[in-house]
């Protein structure tokens, strides 16, 4: 999605980067198949378009990690 119509589409079309420059996808990182950034020089591009179930799965993982690390704050929505 990100390379075809999303966040990095223009850079690919203008040949500033290629598919070979793309390290992996969010699923690979979350599943532990690949490491996340290993230095501040590396960039992460997240294109949040997709299926709602993907959004919910990512939100749950972020929430669980925040709880484990005791970071963030509770917000009452309703």
Structure overview:
With 78 residues, this protein is mostly helical. The protein is built from three helices and no strands.
| Number of strand elements | 0
Strand content: under 5%
Number of helices: 3
Instruction: From the alpha carbons, calculate the radius of gyration and give it in angstroms.
Output: 15 Å
Spans where pLDDT lies below 50 across 5 or more residues: none
| Principal-axes shape call | globular
Largest sheet: none
What distance lies between the first and last C-alpha atoms, to the nearest angstrom?
33 Å
Order of helices and strands: HHH
Structural class per helix/strand content? mainly alpha
| Integer average pLDDT | 86
State the helical fraction. 25-40%
How would you classify the quaternary structure? single chain
Question: Layout of helices and strands, plus pairs?
Answer:
Layout: H1 9-13, H2 26-30, H3 52-69
Offer a quick outline of the entry:
36% of the residues lie in helices and 0% in strands. The chain is built from three helices and no strands.
Task: Give a quick set of tags describing it.
globular; about 80 residues; mainly alpha
């Amino acid at each position: 999605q990100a390379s075809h119509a999303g966040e990095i589409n223009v850079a690919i079309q203008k040949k500033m980067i290629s598919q070979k420059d793309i390290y992996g996808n969010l699923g690979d990182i979350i599943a532990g198949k690949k490491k996340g950034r290993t230095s501040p020089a590396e960039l992460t591009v997240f294109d949040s378009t997709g299926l709602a179930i993907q959004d919910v799965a990512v939100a749950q993982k972020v929430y669980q990690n925040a709880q484990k690390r005791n970071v963030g704050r509770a917000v009452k929505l309703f």
